[in-house]
Design brief:
Distance between the termini: 34 Å
Oligomer: single chain
Number of strands: 7
Largest sheet: 7 strands, mixed
Radius of gyration: 17 Å
Shape: globular
Number of helices: 11
Strand content: 5-15%
């Protein structure tokens, strides 16, 4: 699967970004701009999302997305990278490690988890996928998700055309309903990596927004405690979309992690 992507910078180390659901690569714009001065930065749209084509399948598994990333790296002649994924992008990162560990120099997990969905959670995802297809649009999700994803401060700034909320709403409303529905079904049946993350042998950075309701700091800390070589950082003044809500803090933390060794 050939993905739409942006690539900036020509640093010796490469960062590969994986976006959350139901977003696209533009959620990483602040990171791409800030980090491309020191590193090679690649930010794709996962299959069926953003401007990447859909596969035609009704389900896109996290392993499909991981394999797409490996293909992209090969096409770009990039042997190894540090992978950074948020939420769904973190699930893809775990599959990328599971299937393509030789391509990794490090992992960054932002506001995510290693667990599979509960039966109730999986059912809700499948219902959401069906609703997306019936409506032929993702726009209805914008209001339903916002309070779980962003701080009250961000939401109070929702009328700002250049603010975080405006970027969020555009990503959701403009996304491909076919691809988003397929990704939702893939998340519903993703693997549980909780007992496997202790085998990760590359350095890991775990970031979480201090006000994240979906991946709260205590849960992210528990994940960090299972990983041998790990840094755990709580990002202030941010919720689930920490890289967007407090880009300066996230960028500084990623840069410090990348410059180790």
């Amino acid at each position: 699967m050939k993905l739409n992507y942006v690539k900036h910078g020509n640093g010796a180390k490469t960062i590969l970004f994986g976006h959350g659901f139901p977003f696209d690569h533009t959620m990483w714009d602040a990171q791409v701009e800030a980090l491309a001065t020191d590193f090679t930065v690649i930010a794709p749209d996962f299959r069926g999302m953003g401007k990447s084509p859909a596969s035609g399948k009704s389900i896109t598994d996290m392993s499909d997305m991981a394999d797409d990333l490996a293909e992209l790296l090969t096409d770009l002649n990039v042997e190894k990278c540090v992978y950074c994924g948020l939420s769904m992008g973190g699930y893809v990162g775990l599959e990328f490690w599971n299937r393509h560990a030789e391509r990794l120099e490090g992992l960054i997990f932002c506001d995510t988890n290693a667990k599979a969905d509960t039966p109730e959670g999986a059912t809700k995802r499948l219902e959401t996928a069906d609703k997306i297809e019936v409506k032929g649009s993702c726009a209805f999700m914008t209001n339903g998700m916002k309070e779980n994803l962003m701080t009250a401060e961000t939401l109070r700034d929702a009328e700002n055309p250049d603010g975080v909320y405006a970027v969020y709403a555009k990503m959701v409303c403009d996304n491909n309903p076919v691809g988003v529905a397929a990704a939702a079904r893939g998340m519903a049946r993703r693997k549980d990596f909780t007992e496997k993350v202790g085998k990760i042998s590359v350095p890991v950075l775990i970031l979480t927004g201090e006000k994240d309701l979906l991946s709260p700091p205590d849960a992210m800390r528990q994940l960090a405690e299972r990983i041998p070589d790990v840094e755990f950082v709580v990002i202030p003044n941010a919720a689930h979309l920490a890289p967007m809500e407090n880009a300066d803090a996230v960028n500084a933390t990623i840069k410090q992690f990348m410059n180790k060794e």
